[in-house]
Amino acid sequence: MEIHFMMKWWGWGDPQKTFPMEDKPNLWSWVCNILALQDKNKISEPVSREQVILPEANINQEFLSEITSKLEANQIYTSDDERLEHAYGKSYADLFYARKGIIKKAPDIIIYPHTHDDVEFIMKSAQAHNVCVIPFGGGTNIVGGVDPRDQTMTAKGMRCIVSLDMKQMDKVISIDTQSQTAIIQAGALGPILESQLCEKGWSLGHYPDSFEFSTLGGWLATRSAGMQSDAYGKIEDMLVSLKMVTPTGTVITRTTPASSAGPDLNRFIVGSEGILGVITEATMRIHKSPEVKDYRGFLFPSFEKGVEAIKECIDKNWIPSMIRLQDEFESQLAFNMKSPKKGFEALIQKQVKKFLLATGYQKPCIMIVGFEGDLKNTQVISQEAVKILKKHRAFSLGKSVGKTWSKDKFNIPYLRDYMMDYAVMVDVAETAAVWSKLLNVYHKTIEEMKKRFAEEDNGTGTGYIGCHISHTYHTGACLYFTYATKQNPNKEMEQYYGYKKLITDTFLKNGATLTHHHAVGYEHSPWMETEVSATGLKALKAVKDVLDPKNICNPGKVLPVEEEMRLGVFGIDAPEAVHQSKSRAKKRSGQVSRNLNENTIS
Amino acid sequence: MEIHFMMKWWGWGDPQKTFPMEDKPNLWSWVCNILALQDKNKISEPVSREQVILPEANINQEFLSEITSKLEANQIYTSDDERLEHAYGKSYADLFYARKGIIKKAPDIIIYPHTHDDVEFIMKSAQAHNVCVIPFGGGTNIVGGVDPRDQTMTAKGMRCIVSLDMKQMDKVISIDTQSQTAIIQAGALGPILESQLCEKGWSLGHYPDSFEFSTLGGWLATRSAGMQSDAYGKIEDMLVSLKMVTPTGTVITRTTPASSAGPDLNRFIVGSEGILGVITEATMRIHKSPEVKDYRGFLFPSFEKGVEAIKECIDKNWIPSMIRLQDEFESQLAFNMKSPKKGFEALIQKQVKKFLLATGYQKPCIMIVGFEGDLKNTQVISQEAVKILKKHRAFSLGKSVGKTWSKDKFNIPYLRDYMMDYAVMVDVAETAAVWSKLLNVYHKTIEEMKKRFAEEDNGTGTGYIGCHISHTYHTGACLYFTYATKQNPNKEMEQYYGYKKLITDTFLKNGATLTHHHAVGYEHSPWMETEVSATGLKALKAVKDVLDPKNICNPGKVLPVEEEMRLGVFGIDAPEAVHQSKSRAKKRSGQVSRNLNENTIS
User: Fold this and answer.
1) Are residues A316 and A240 in the same domain?
2) Which residues does the annotated region (Disordered) include (chains A, B) (predicted)?
3) Which of B497, B509, B558, B475 is nearest to B223 (CA)?
4) Could you read off the pLDDT of A375-402 as tens digits, one per residue?
């Protein structure tokens, strides 16, 4: 059978597609300049499929024959291509190894359930045979959420690992037009569920960056946030009820707009990242397809001015569906992604630039603002919100900027692959903080990262970091950082985890959260105790232990793993650790490397 | 020391206050008529304080001396008055027994912590000495949330029970004006916390019916909803972070506007009703004190028309801060609570009535609509919302009706005491359902209850039931029923639990939730499995077992108690049970009675 990889096994997105650099003539030279890249040739392209070596499959035959007796042949795979497709998510670490053809651990069997009953059957069988189950939606997780990590040794050796690919459970089962809810199978990819809803005039309104390649179940399992979360909420706000199959039974929550019948079980499950079981379907709050989608661009003289404007919109209750405020650095990136204007347009642009420079916009920050919904409602809200933005010195760039942003919004992840070809380390980190702490978190993060860039061992002594605010709330907002520097040869993982540790420590030390919407996986798990307190962690673990007593559900995720803690893989016990001496930091990142290398195939 | 009871020990609210019947000359005769009350004398007044007999205190001396060694004398009480004040909540069953002077079980020690550290100390000591701890806020719970229920027998006999009265922890600790959050101690009563916030220009905006006598901690523990929840959300939506002291450690959640760091621990704690520990303080989302408070009354020709109007306001996103739609029966009650007009006003009223009758308002339903906030914002929203209401045949009653409602809004609970003096059983039940099920739940509930009234054994064959919608959501709304009938002499508890069973079964069978904001206590606990599924219940129990392994925290609440289930106290295993034969129902309610009577003091 011919395998069609839904995404590149070594990178982001559609295997047929690369980052559209051709219409951005200024971009690459700007990047090379910023990162001080000397060698402008592709020096680190991915190996060919043939060069990838997969670890030998570890099949539990009793389990496999039980599964085979009930499911159809086209639901069960043990081929290397399928195993490769499900071996990694899309974190920098995942792609770094995949591109080299190093598969540290791969699932042994890939199963595609068609129904809720299939999932119940598979889970029962997995529980009986002590087989691990990793729910797999689109596989876009960038914190190690879908990677096989089980290290449990049994009398029969290591446990067999199943990747449960949910993508064939992709139907909108029913729409309740009165209640504005839809029952949707968890494996539906963004475009697939939106098209089914759209046909009937409805929309879920959830558009995370990964929209094209991620699923409803994945969004729920990771507490995802879409671009228009200001209007529609985070995924947990849209959730009405769900079904989750655990090794010890199925949780079914009640379809009700609100309740006070004990703690909210939906919120036990949302964010559980497959460690409790598999979400098979959910009743979601939906909206009429918006009559109006009005996106506009503005320039602010500073990040601070933009934040003031957002805060006043929130205070006055004129809240756009989307606000995305880019800092000066990310705005520069955006400017360099535009095609240069020609002739008269270029002249105008030059004059505008001159005017802006003369009036205090030396470090201009772009804001993209979106209004969606009913015609009358968006008219009123946009009118009032824009008044407030202008009060805080927003310079209107018109609707074309909104359109440009919208066109490229799902392309940014492809840029990472492009840069990795040139041996660049590139990653993102996001957090959220209350307004009184937000700018401090922003400045401290930029400062700490620039300091680290200056100390870089990669021969450049420099790097890029930029940030945008997206997802705003009454009490605060999300900060989303993108950073890049040349890879440090032969120390790529020390480098990567070094930055991850630095930025995460900086978040937590300054009162921000561990993650706003990328979730925990294994990469963030060492910080969980700092985030939720030791007793809080005990409560999470209690639910895990009772629903999944054999730890067969996505082991090694969310909850810190003892061994990792002991080895100090990330070297974190408390936020204060960020101030550890440089030698100690070096020693710790050395440990990271050793530990990771032990798992690699030489 | 002179004891000042904050609330009547035998009824609702301020001991100095009774229901203001004097300005409602039509009300009582209307009630007597509706309920077919023959005997219009007070035949069932509460006994005097002297006639109340308290069970002997069961003091754990080791615990008491440990506590006494650290806390001040005015923090620890064992007096009968204090024990009486903390023996019951305010459910009909609670008041029925209290009024007769029957105290089935009372706490043995009452402790008033002053600080978070006090609570940690008390909890540690209670854990060491196996003493039960019941957090007590205002004690207004009407589903048995604060009643001592522990039946655990130890080698030293029954366990000593502490009521932990939080009311001295009543400070707004700090306000973060930028983030619009306040850190508030959990024991602050509604008026106390609002006055501290108001002084600085802020408001929490949470006004449940019990506002005057309930606390922040109680609201959080029961997932309370305030009258303006449409604008400000339920209490869980306002919560940013909190501290909860458990017998095995303190949970501290992170102050962040949003997160994806695992399941949301705040939501493990909100709704836990003291069974996991004691909430000591919380960071809450606050709002600027609203510039405008604009309340208005309307009449609709039917409940259905009112629902249509609400749905269109939500669909078009012009949502008032409060919508309260009363059905025809509750509207009649409201009409009969008004002072009759005189002279010219009476003439006008008569003409209006004539006009309404002629144009299809035979069964008029009152809607109270409120708009709160910024001047410009409320102007726009009210204008658009009122347009929609009028489209659905809303007849404007002007602002005076809003004012009348606002004046009496906290008085309604006093009416229950008034009616109980006349041997009337009166109770409330509330639920929520998605829009597509809402009207069916409404009609089925009215129908079932009227059928039961007709079969009443109290000699009247009749009763009252009315309903209002409050708390609306994108996907549905809350239904709040009030019902009354003459007490069935010597079978008051069979009667009460019979109605509770009937109405709760009707809710669950027709797809509504067990409770929207009254919580579970012990009265609703037998339905928890139906509400959250067996596996869901296992998850809740897991958290309880690990944080409170000795079950010292408010035992017997939220989670169904085995023995009660076995005895069939409420006779519920599944919603189908509502269709059980009448004889079986009788047998079961007989068991209720026997079981309850066993605990009474004869």
Assistant:
1) no
2) 580-602
3) B558
4) 999 999 999 999 999 999 999 999 988 8
